[in-house]
Design brief:
Elements lengths: L14 H6 L3 E3 L1 H7 L6 E9 L2 E6 L2 E4 L11 E9 L2 E6 H11 L6 H11 L6 H6 L2 H8 L5 H9 L9 H9 L5 H7 L7 H11 L5 H25 L3 E7 L7 E7 L11 E9 L3 E9 L4 E8 L2 H9 L1 H9 L4 E8 L22
Helix pairs in contact: 7-10, 10-11
């Protein structure tokens, strides 16, 4: 079973940073002025001041003794640690290098192959979307020899008409992305989809495609866990999951946010939705939420009737968003299929959508 602590694969670390970065000691007084908190991640920028190299963090100049190979304008991410002498800024690259030295190596080539197969999975999400179609999942649950498990899985099937921010939050928390974290932290969490799929595989007698699909769902979830961790290492966020319904086909959801800027500027959130059914056809929705709570939306619908209904509902949408303090500043509705994006460029930070 793969969890966050086992999926901590890091890209090749830069020899420049590993050789030249040094921890920076900060007094409690200066730490309070800057607003440093334990375990916080901050970004510093190297600057030249009077012939000396300085580290700028939140407008504060700090001494920087490690000048080798650094030039003004270089940025370094630090994690704040509390010591008996105050705060210490530890370069994240150095921290990662230490963890790599102490980390338990993969036991065999099979585990390495497993991680690589998850890392380069083609278009994930399709198996879950097919599995959680109401007619399909009900048929598979009939094969389960554990009625309690069937009842438990039925509990994560939401009602489309009863959807709310809380149900979306519950679906994310129960998506399987955070199961191992909850176990490691010894905190109680919601129902974990990945664990339920594993139990279903053991408590049922599916054969042929059914058994293979359940295994693929586990692979998809673990691939998404790996994707989330890779984004986290770049100071980004990426949460990709499927939300199932009892009265509609499932919706694939992807929350993304880029890294915080050097000047502390917060990036916008991007939310992508995808679903397909006989009633509305195939539908994609891309939503951008700025820090000012302005909303920009682009909707692709391959059904002309669905596109027309979406245009007619614009007023209701603006009113609904306003109830949450959000302002719809742009809405583009296209009667078309969303342009395909190479999965190799769709990870956080790899693709800029210039078409919308």
């Amino acid at each position: 079973m793969l969890g966050p602590e086992q999926l901590n694969i890091t890209p090749r670390l830069s020899p420049l940073v590993l050789e030249s970065s040094a921890a920076v000691a900060v007094s409690e007084k200066v730490a309070r002025e800057i607003g440093l908190a334990d375990n916080q991640v901050v970004r510093g920028v190297i600057a030249a001041r009077g012939g000396l190299m300085k580290l700028l963090i939140n407008g504060q100049e700090l001494g920087w003794a490690s000048t080798k190979k650094f030039k003004p304008g270089d940025s370094i991410d630090f994690r704040v640690r509390t010591t008996i002498n105050g705060k210490t800024l530890l370069p994240i690259s150095v921290e990662l290098a230490k963890s790599l030295k102490t980390a338990k190596p993969l036991g065999n080539s099979g585990e390495s192959s497993r991680l690589l197969s998850l890392l380069y999975r083609p278009g994930s999400g399709a198996t879950q979307s097919e599995f959680f179609k109401p007619s399909m999942v009900n048929e598979i649950l009939k094969q389960s020899i554990d009625p309690n498990l069937s009842q438990t899985i039925a509990q994560i099937m939401y009602k489309m008409r009863g959807i709310s921010p809380n149900t979306v939050r519950d679906a994310l928390l129960g998506s399987g992305l955070f199961g191992e974290f909850s176990l490691k932290a010894q905190v109680s969490g919601p129902l974990d989809l990945k664990q339920m799929m594993r139990k279903l595989l053991l408590a049922s007698k599916p054969d042929g495609p059914a058994a293979g699909n359940i295994e693929k769902i586990v692979d998809e979830i673990e691939g998404r866990q790996l994707e989330a961790l890779q984004a986290q290492q770049k100071q980004e966020l990426s949460y990709h999951f499927v939300m199932p319904f009892v009265d509609a086909n499932p919706v694939e959801i992807h929350f993304q946010r880029g890294a915080i800027g050097i000047d502390g500027e917060l990036p916008s959130w991007v939310i992508n939705l995808h679903t397909e059914s006989d009633e509305i056809g195939e539908l994609w929705l891309k939503t951008t939420v700025t820090t000012d709570l302005d909303i920009g939306m682009t909707l692709w619908a391959d059904s002309i009737d669905t596109a027309e209904k979406a245009r007619e509902a614009t007023g209701s949408l603006e009113k609904a968003l306003g109830e949450f303090g959000l302002k719809l500043t742009k809405l583009t509705i296209l009667n078309a299929v969303r342009p395909l994006v190479d999965t190799g460029f769709s990870a956080p930070g790899h693709f800029l959508d210039i078409k919308t």
